[in-house]
Amino acid sequence: MEERVAERLRGALCPLGFEVHALKVGWYNAVLQPAFHLPYPDDTLAFVVLSTPSMFDKALKPFVKKEQLKIIRDPVDQCVSHYLSHVKEKFPDQKVDVIFDYEILPSRKPKFLAQTAAHVAGAAYYYQRKDVKLDPWGKKKIYGVCIHPKYGGWFAIRALLLFPDIQVLFLKQSVPVDCVNTEEKRIELLEQFNFHWQDGLYRDIIEVKERYSEEQKAYFATPPAERFRLLGLTQ
């Protein structure tokens, strides 16, 4: 069942520059405090959805061109929502729940922890402070960051798709590729991400196969309120 669902998802989303990776809700809940648990049985099938560098040209720009009169909020969020709602239509006999990366609970906690989901699904390795043996940061707050084995930091985690009626008892867990595998590189990665994230150098901590185009870099470097202009939109 999981393979059939995955095949249908990949057929719909991969040509648009997305990736999908399967996981069980139990894998995710097992590594988090109860406050962050997803309210589904452990064997529930889910997929984490990533956008790769090609999503900008394959999905966002065509979407904006076609739907520009209807765009009233963040174009990327609206684009992702548009394509995932179409994906739901491909499963008329299944309940499909979608949680987007930007959604929050009334408590202000995120509805799901995107980087944790990507790690347990084997999509990207979530490097955290605990992955450094000789911690040089003392009392400083250090945030973790996911690195993709092919795209480095040039990708984004967009959503979690959940299939509440599909239980996958025997799904085998994929281990994420540990591509930043020396102490020195991990320290460099977390330093760059936490203290110099604006320059984006952390994204190239490994040799990448593809990165954002100059147009895409300019788009994401622009304050959100001004991005509409770059896409030829008026607010």
Automatic annotation (TrEMBL):
Q: Does the keyword Cytoplasm apply?
A: yes
GO molecular-function annotation terms? cobalamin binding; cyanocobalamin reductase (cyanide-eliminating) (NADP+) activity; demethylase activity; FAD binding
Q: Which reaction does it catalyse?
A: apo-[alkylcobalamin reductase] + methylcob(III)alamin + glutathione = S-methyl glutathione + cob(I)alamin-[alkylcobalamin reductase] + H(+); apo-[alkylcobalamin reductase] + an R-cob(III)alamin + glutathione = cob(I)alamin-[alkylcobalamin reductase] + an S-substituted glutathione + H(+); 2 cob(II)alamin-[cyanocobalamin reductase] + 2 hydrogen cyanide + NADP(+) = 2 cyanocob(III)alamin + 2 apo-[cyanocobalamin reductase] + NADPH + H(+); apo-[alkylcobalamin reductase] + adenosylcob(III)alamin + glutathione = S-adenosylglutathione + cob(I)alamin-[alkylcobalamin reductase] + H(+)
UniProt-listed Enzyme Commission number(s): 1.16.1.6, 2.5.1.151
Task: Please cite one Gene Ontology biological process associated with this protein.
Answer: cobalamin metabolic process
Required cofactor(s)? FMN; FAD
Q: Which GO terms describe its cellular component?
A: cytoplasm
> What's a Pfam family this protein contains?
MMACHC
- According to UniProt, the name of this protein is Cyanocobalamin reductase / alkylcobalamin dealkylase
Which organism is the protein's source? Upupa epops (Eurasian hoopoe)
